[in-house]
Amino acid sequence: MAKLSVNINKIATLRNSRGGNVPNLLQVAADVQKFGAQGVTIHPRPDERHIRYQDARDLVPVVYTEYNIEGNPIREFIDLVLETKPTQVTLVPDADDAITSNAGWDTIKHKSFLQEVNQEFQRNGIRVSIFVDPDLKMVEGALATGAERIELYTEAFAHEYGLGNERGIEPYIASAELAQQLGLGLNAGHDLSLDNIKFFKQNIPGLLEVSIGHALIAEALYLGLDNVVNMYLQRLK
């Protein structure tokens, strides 16, 4: 069974839109774990438009499952991760003005930089995952950086699946098979939903973890957070 890590960025977005502390981010993090999620993910950005850097600190005593912090490894982000020491850091090449993640790393072009960052995290006992497109060269490049895992950027799969094109999963299968051959752990995320997660899980070998936020929170508006978390867990079996 692949683990479900719930990305709670959208909870922070809703909180920030009104000010105050409703909804309570820490309570939601505690609740999704109580409902069965095996991890909590956050993705702080420099402008703190959703998750704030202080949220990352405040979540440390709350997250007793896997704590995953995603982001672009600028110096402020690196320092935050080293301070909070999550289970996993997922490196994402976000531009400052990106609405959401929209590309994986060029692990060949940025090999030296990623090696340096990875070593700093790993010296502090933090597992490193690198966000990549389903491109075999980028998967091989991730291994060369010293990362323990990759996270496949699944937007293209979700788009094609929504159009009825199940063959859109083929590059992901190939990337997953290569990751297994190379000894890389495999995560996935972006636009995965109740509609497509079962098909994705059934076809991707060695899938260890999915990180889901936007769709899960949107689905929970209709179905309830406890119910939705358990619907994902059933599909991931």
Structure, explained:
It is a single chain. With 237 residues, the protein is of the alpha/beta class. The protein has a single domain (3-236), classed as TIM Barrel. Helix content is 45%, strand content 17%. It contains 11 helices and 8 strands. The protein has helices at residues 9-18, 25-34, 53-58, 75-84, 111-123, 136-144, 155-162, 170-182, 197-203, 214-223, 225-235, and strands spanning 3-7, 39-42, 66-71, 88-91, 127-132, 149-153, 185-189, 207-212. The chain has an 8-stranded parallel barrel with strand order 1-2-3-4-5-6-7-8, surrounded by 6 helices. Strand 4, helix 5 and strand 5 (127-132) form a beta-alpha-beta unit. The chain is globular. Its EC number is 2.6.99.2. Pathway: Cofactor biosynthesis; pyridoxine 5'-phosphate biosynthesis; pyridoxine 5'-phosphate from D-erythrose 4-phosphate: step 5/5. 3-amino-2-oxopropyl phosphate binds at residues 7, 18, 191, 213-214. The record marks 151 as: Transition state stabilizer.
Write the layout of secondary structure elements.
Layout: E1 3-7, H1 9-18, H2 25-34, E2 39-42, H3 53-58, E3 66-71, H4 75-84, E4 88-91, H5 111-123, E5 127-132, H6 136-144, E6 149-153, H7 155-162, H8 170-182, E7 185-189, H9 197-203, E8 207-212, H10 214-223, H11 225-235
Parallel strand pairs: 1-2, 1-8, 2-3, 3-4, 4-5, 5-6, 6-7, 7-8
Helix pairs in contact: 6-8, 10-11
